[in-house]
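hey so i finally got around to running the thing on that chain from the lab meeting. sorry it took forever, my laptop kept dying and i had to restart like 3 times. anyway pasting the input first so we r on the same page abt which one it is
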Amino acid sequence: MKILVIGDIVVPCELLVEAAHTIAGDREHTVEAVEWPCESRQEFQHRSLNLEKNGPTAEKVPDEAYQEIADADILLTHFCPVPADLIAAGRKLTLIGTCRGGMEHVDVAAATERNIPVVHCIRNAECTSDFAIGLMFAETRNIARAHAAIKQGNWRKDYVNSGYTTSMCEMTLGVVGLGHIGKLVARKGAGIGMKKVIAYDPFVSQESLDAAGLPVTLVSQEELFRTADIVSLHMRLTPETKNSIGREQLGWMKPTAYLINTSRAGVMDKDALVEALRNKTIGGAALDVFWDEPVPAGDPLLELDNLTMTPHTAGNVVDALPKSPLLLARVILDYWATGKSDMVVNLRNLK
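ok and heres what got predicted. didnt touch it at all, straight out
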């Protein structure tokens, strides 16, 4: 067995090599390491954002990777792009693993055509779900706005939502997307005593939620947006989900309801959101992800008084990145042992 790892400045090769040895176990194997070079974290952030926006062909793959993948059985990476031509060069490839949640850097369709499982891990699921709950409190109770006002010398008491501010126990939480993070948010929402937790996910059954002991009721997308007092988005960005939360969905929301997004900005129609917040057809919103990062001067989002913003920090905890390769290794070993996993993104389409 040959395992090719491609590390970078954020998740270095040595961590992926350790994960590769864990995956191989007692099997005879070799591990080859290639680096996706970035001079600085700033360059890495620029290139990774380009991949998130424009897909796996947007950035160059190291030439060495094409040579080493020719006889590799497994490819493990963090953020190095995995375009169709790299997959095609891996004639023996049987599995692709990436130690992050987003899949924008991998041509999953090309892997599926070759019947190659693509495995990922949600390295920051707990901290992102914590953050989503935190944004709910911050937006509904004006915590960040109050802090900013005091710093500016204002003892502010009145806000856009002053006429309908209430406690979490009076609110229904609607979770859109019941992946790993979505399920954690749903469980934590129930745990803090929210009135009810409902969810929309066409790929999840009520039976599976009941069997897992998750206190969530599945509803249609329209019912969720019409019913929920807080709508929290936890969707992957795919061609099908891009701009899928738009004027229609926001138009279903109550004028006192809030929208939270810690997933990907691209799942939302920006113009529709700005319009809804300006016209106060929804109560407010909180965003940790944006269409342009950092948010540029003059962006209409900066003018809104019913919007809480944080600089894409929901997943930023000190131990998430170093632990992610071994987490990916455990996910792969579990998949091999059971033949099933929520972390195999193309499992439904494999032959």
